[in-house]
Structures are given as C-alpha cells and as structure tokens.
Amino acid sequence: MGIRKIDYQLCNGCEICVDNxxxxxxxxxxxxxxxxxxxxxxxxxxxxxxxxCPVGAIYVTPDRERRxxxxx
Amino acid sequence: xxxxxIGTDILVLGGGLAGAFAAIKAKEAGTGKVxxxxxxxxxxxxxxxxxxxVFRGVFPEDDRDEWFKKLALRDDLGAGIYHEEWLNxxxxxxYDRILDMEKWGVAWEKTPDGKFExxxxxxxxxxxxxxxxxxxxxxxxxxxxxxxxVIGHTMITGLLTEDxxxxxxxxxxxxxxxxxxxxxxxxxxxxxLAAGACGFKGRxxxxxxxxxxxxxxxxxxxxxxxxxxxxxxxxxxxxxxDTHGLNMFIALGGKFVNAKGERFMLEYDPELxxxxxxxxxxxxxxxxxxxxxxxxxxxxxxxxxxxxRKLRVVLPIPVxxxxxxxxxxxDKIVKxxxxxxxxxxxxxxxxxxxxxxxxxxxxxxxxACGDAxxxxxxxxxxxxxxxxxxxxxxxxxxxxxxxxxxPEIAEEQVGRLKNFAFAPLKREDGIEPEHVIVGLQxxxxxxxxxxxxxxxxxxxxxxxxxxxRDEEVPLLYASDPHYLRLANETRNMVLVxxxxxxxxxLREESRDSCLxxxxxxxxxxxxxxxxxxxxENGKMKLWTEDVPVEKYKVKPERKKYLYPxxxxxxxxxxxxx
Lengths: 72, 577
Fold this sequence. Notes:
The complex is a heterodimer.
Chain A: E1 3-6, H1 16-20, E2 26-29, E3 34-37, H2 48-52, E4 58-60
Antiparallel strand pairs in A: 1-4, 2-3
Chain B: E1 4-13, H1 17-28, E2 34-37, E3 54-56, H2 64-73, H3 84-104, E4 118-120, E5 126-129, H4 134-145, E6 149-151, E7 154-161, E8 170-177, E9 183-193, H5 213-220, E10 225-231, E11 236-238, H6 246-251, E12 255-257, H7 265-268, H8 278-290, E13 296-299, H9 305-314, H10 316-324, E14 328-329, E15 332-333, E16 337-341, E17 350-353, E18 366-368, H11 382-402, H12 411-426, H13 433-444, H14 447-450, E19 452-453, H15 455-472, H16 481-506, E20 515-516, E21 521-523, E22 529-536, E23 539-546, E24 560-562, H17 564-571
Parallel strand pairs in B: 1-2, 1-9, 2-6, 9-18, 19-20
Antiparallel strand pairs in B: 3-5, 4-5, 7-8, 8-9, 10-17, 10-22, 11-16, 12-13, 13-16, 14-15, 21-24, 22-23
Helix pairs in contact in B: 1-4, 1-11, 2-3, 3-11, 5-16, 9-10, 12-16, 13-15, 13-16, 15-16
C-alpha cells in the first residue's frame, strides 16, 4: 500500500519528496516537472514525503507494501 | 576504469548522527577537506531521522557512579559483559554532545524554567526529549554550514586498500549513484564507517534502508568484527503497521497485556515492568505466545489528552501513522495495538566493526562509529552512542590524516570492486532481490530462531542462509541503478545474517537478547567473552576474546544462574528445553 496518492492539482513540483525519500521510491517526470511513484514496492510507509510536502499533496497509508513474516 | 574521481582528506561513509558528528568534528579539527557520502539525502536517510525522540545523557548533577554501576552489571544489559573504557567515555562525554547539538539548533523539550525536561524511560534511566526528525534537520544543516562536501544518493560498495591488498590500510572507497548508476571512486587519507546497521528490511518504521553496508565492506576488506549475537535484535513494534517510539510510550505509561488481559511484564521483570529492555519484552512475549496466551498488546488507551499532545511533539511521524491506522482519534488513543518482536538486527546495539575508544579498527586508516561499531549490547549504544563515538571518530581520524601522505590507488582493485558492485546489472537475467529478501526474513524472523533459540534450529537457519548465499546471491539481477542498489543491499544482508547466526551458535549460554533453550544459564564462569569474526581464506572465522573483567573496577561475580525469563516462564507453566 505505502504511498497512495500525489495530488497534481496541489503539487508545486518542488522535488522535496523525490530528494528526501530514503527508499528512492519517487522520480521526477522531466516533461511535467512533477514527481511520480516509480518503485512502490520499496515504499516503507515512513511518511517523510507526506510530512515534508509543503502543500499537503501526498497521502501515505500505514499498510505495509511488502509482506514481512511475523515472528509467530 | 574511469568513473568520477573524488579526492579528500577524510571520507565519512554514512550521514546519520554518528557520521554527521564525525564530519563536523573532523572539520573543526582543521584537517582540510572532509567528504560525507550518504545513500540518500543527508538528514533524511538515517536511522537517526526516525529516532524515537529520546536521548540519554549523564548530566553534571547526576550521580555518575550510580549510572556506572547501573549500566555495568545489569543482567539485562550484558550481565557483566561490558567495556569499561567505552562506558567511562560515554558517561563523561554524553552531556557535551547534547550541548553541541543544542548549539546547532536541535530543539529539546524544556521545563518552564528553561531546564532540560527529563523522564524515566527504558531501564528507568532518565532521557531528554527532542522533536523527532528536527534533530537530523538541524544536524544536517550544521554539516553543510561547516563546509563539509556532501555527496548524496550514493551507495558505497567496497573499501580501497593500500596496493589493493586484503587487510591493507584503507585509502578510500567506491560506490555508485543510486539514480544514475554513475561509478564513484573516493580517495582519502582516513575513512570513517558510519553506515553499519542492518535491519534486514524488517517490521519497524523507517529502517528499511539499513542493510549492514559498512559491516559488509569492512568484512570483505579483512577487518575484525564482532558482537553480532547480542544487541537490540529484538526490538518490538505493532503487527499491523510499522511504528516506533516505545521508549516514549512506556515513559508515558503504556502497558503490555497478553490475550487474557494479564500484565505479564510484572512477573517477568518485577523491577522494571514495562520499562524492561526490548529483549526482555520480546522474550517474555514469546513465552506467553508459546503457552497459548498470545497475541500480545500494547495498551495506551488510558493516556490523557496532555500525554497525546506530548507524543505529537516528540513523535510526529508515529502519531501520524497511528492516526491513519485509527489508533489515535483526536486527543485520545482509542484502541490497544497488537504488538510483537520486530527483528531489529544490529540497529542501535550489537554487532559491528571492532573499534577501540579512539574508534580505530583493525585496519590502518579505517575508523568506525555509531552502529558500524561493535557495541557489545550495552552502552554506548543507539543515538547517544552515535553522538559520542561519531565525535571521537572524527577527531581521531583527523589526527591520523594530518600525519598521512596522499595515498595511491591500485587501479586493478578499483576494477575488481566495480565489477563486484555492477555484476547484477551486467547479467542478462536472474533473480529479483525481493525473492531473496523474503527468503532471508522467513529464515531469520521466526521467534524460535531469534527470540528463544536452540542449537539445532540455528544450524538449520545457517544452512538455509548458506544456500541463499551460494545459489541465489550469484544470480541477483538488477534492471536499473535502483535495483542495483537493492541487489547490493540484499547481498550485504545475506552476509550479515550469516554473521548473526554463526555468532549466536557460538555463544553456548543464555544472556540478554540471546536465549538458548539448550543452554538456559547465564554463565559468568565460562562466558564473560566477546565474540569476534573476520574473513580468512574466503571463509568466516569466529573466535572469542575474554572480557578483561579482572582489570575492571566494578567486577561481575563469577557465577552461573538460570536466565530469569526461563525461571519465570517455568512458574507460569511455559514448557522449554
């Protein structure tokens, strides 16, 4: 699940989310100069992109994108 | 063998709090050029970014001897396995590091009269509180303002040594840009490792980029490592989503309950209760689950609106996560969270590169700090250890660099390391990293391997990791630089998994965070020892080194006793053996 939405109406193309993502999930579309979700499966739902977005354009879910085994 | 060439005096690998401290202190020492390389953006790609808002420090008004006694001999902090010199260094320097950070603009929670606000967290030790990610924002700014050259989005994959020889002095590193795939070669007089933690992409918030990179490259260069069986391997988190911040949750009164609603920690740790170590909480939870009293919950529904406000300030990201998971609604916590061991790997405490209190490793010119350094399962550890050891690594690496000539790089080694890093991209086809990662997690994470272990189960897990290493790793495939990073991370994690399991098998006793059903006693007669490992003739060689307790002022008693969790479990009708 991870990052679910980038609202292109709100997005100002500042690139902060692309630069900040520690998992390298996002890339910039060179034509529109807006970010897009390229590697969703590597999203760790850490919410950095959402909390650092200056215009509130990003929505993240806390549901894990990767299946991770439980200890029991 | 082109690639971008970067020459520097001091190369810092890793941009968490340890790496940042190393870079800032090295620059302050006036050595010349300092270059910091991080896998993502500086300030955003470290465990410290997601550090859970609390920092332990010994204040001038504290009873230092009391802290020493508390940290040296506790049976949930190594039971006498400690490093006297490092513990003294940490007790003496932690407060100064807090003041450093305050000067850089790190915001701390203060009392109305302007003093540091302190609360009792794990071990009932006092912590001060900072505002989550703001700590690394202010610290990263200080790194840049200090004139450190920062190169981001670059994964380091190998260390360069004098004449390209194994176990030679370290003279830099190589890596690649994780977005463009550009190869980078760093030449340096001194190299500081500050990217060592391995979280195995497990169930914990914000830690999935920690893949033991520094430990893996140091091992391949012939350095001595150790301590992989111990540490905070057993951190805990929610089962349904990743979060962090347990120190704070407990400081505010969070309680663990089993499926019957019993506060089992009152029995497993009558002294600390929920303030017990992560290991103790995981071990006790596992015993309860084995007895059919699972699942385990963390209950915080009794928190006041003021408690929730405090959480919001200190842990802004976990609060956001819990709101979205509908655990927090408004200023109330509305339901208990199912909770379980998270398999934390070597993050915060445990295995790493062997280093003395000047952060020197067994290889000349190579320094280790923070989670890249072996931490023996006790202090210095975690964020407070990163600050103290990072500052030292920077200062001593700078001293070394001042007396060292420009090194010469062996081009043959550059070529070899480049081929090693880029192999997954060169293959026409192969296994995607995801498959290997899941296989590794399925091998490591069952509680009967990591929480309540036994020799036969460890041997089986080692066989499986060897199979993954020999059959799958050579076929790892990457279609672009992003997946090349993932493939290299995966290869490093497989190596660290082997270090962990082999060290665990070597320790034939039960001590905090490494329980063995087949050796249920804490054995201070035979096992006041550190585990060590290194690569020899292509194989992992392990041995032990005696802890020099006879020379210590505060000596652990030479005795053997049933590890407390086994004793309580027996009373509570849990079978083990």
